[in-house]
Amino acid sequence: MVWDAGGSTVGETDWLYQNTRKWIQELQDKPWDGPVRYLLFRFCCSSLDPTDVLELRNARPWPLAEDPDSIAVVPSTVGGKIGTSRLATGQDADKLRALRDALLSGAIGCDYCFAIPIAGAGGKYYQLYVRDSIPLEDEHGLLGLHH
């Protein structure tokens, strides 16, 4: 939040503060079933035996209809690029949330890694990142300061 010298919020950000407080309260009152944003990375250590890699423990199959190879990115090509996440809604969002819940419960992956392990066809592995989307985001998952 931005404050002016008198201790009150600057008008440009008042709407953000007021709406954020309302949405946080709504989220606390019910489980989130809205859209999620996700990014799928190719697992780049192909020389390793996946059974020896804790981050890939109990990897799950890719749950969405899209071919994971067509949307997966190489981590080094994304660095510094914002707005590259994808949006999932409805049943697709539910499937991705279930994977995130499995990671958070300790059933898959590891406790120091925020990536969800995904096993693809042909021995390929991926790391999936999922987060809830909020109403203020634009079509790229970014939060602008103009409403």
List the helices and strands and how they pair.
Layout: H1 11-29, E1 36-42, E2 60-61, H2 68-71, H3 75-78, E3 86-88, H4 90-105, E4 116-119, E5 125-132
Defining traits:
alpha+beta; 147 residues; five-stranded mixed sheet; 16% strand; 2 domains; 29% helix
Compact description:
By secondary structure, the protein is α+β, with helices and mostly antiparallel strands. It folds into 2 domains: 1-30; 33-132, no CATH class. 29% of the residues lie in helices and 16% in strands.
Structural features, described:
The chain is an alpha+beta fold and 147 residues long. It folds into 2 domains: 1-30; 33-132, no CATH class. It contains 4 helices and 5 strands; from the N terminus they run H-E-E-H-H-E-H-E-E. The protein has helices at residues 11-29, 68-71, 75-78, 90-105; strands spanning 36-42, 60-61, 86-88, 116-119, 125-132. Strands 2-4-5-1-3 form a 5-stranded mixed β-sheet. A hairpin with a 5-residue loop joins strand 4 and strand 5. The radius of gyration is 18 Å and the shape is elongated.
